[in-house]
Write a structure and sequence with these properties.
Oligomer: single chain
Strand content: 35-45%
Helix content: 10-25%
Number of strands: 12
Length: 152
């Protein structure tokens, strides 16, 4: 074999080796979050109870983006607390918005926190209420209803 031929073979081998080594093996960047939603939305929770919220991130095509970090916060800690996993704990009666945030997108969930169902607030137990429509009297646990007056 002539030296020119050997030189061409070495040149071709070196070119193939360089081509194989220069390939970009990094994965493409994941698509950005286009929208963020939270489930469930708008509900009532009793004081002392908990519920789990789940954030759902989607790309521009509407595809779910899994495993994206989400931060959680509350606008009223005296009404409800939320941990880093979206677990909400009702602290006191009132209205609160829990906000999920990821990659600059956010979504707020409104929650009404009430006393344990079946308990009557002590401020209204001794009052009497008049109703304008006697045919449509409300029925409430713990109240006696007669004619047009409901009394505690």
């Amino acid at each position: 074999m002539t030296s020119a031929r050997r030189g061409r073979r070495w040149t071709a081998a070196a070119f193939l080796l360089l081509a194989a080594c220069s390939r970009d093996t990094t994965a493409p960047a994941p698509p950005p979050i286009a929208s963020l939603s939270v489930s469930p939305t708008g509900f009532v929770l009793e004081v002392g109870k908990t519920t789990q919220l789940v954030a759902i991130a989607r790309d521009a095509r509407g595809e779910v983006l899994a495993d994206r970090p989400v931060s959680w916060r509350t606008d009223s800690p005296s009404v409800a607390l939320v941990d880093e996993h979206g677990l909400v704990t009702a602290a006191g009666p009132g209205y609160v918005t829990i906000i999920a945030e990821a990659e600059g997108k956010s979504f707020g969930v409104g929650i009404t926190v009430v006393h344990e169902q079946g308990l009557v607030d002590s401020r209204i137990t001794a009052q009497t209420y008049q109703y304008a429509t006697p045919n449509r009297l409300p029925t409430c646990r713990g109240f006696s209803i007669s004619s047009r007056t409901a009394t505690a």
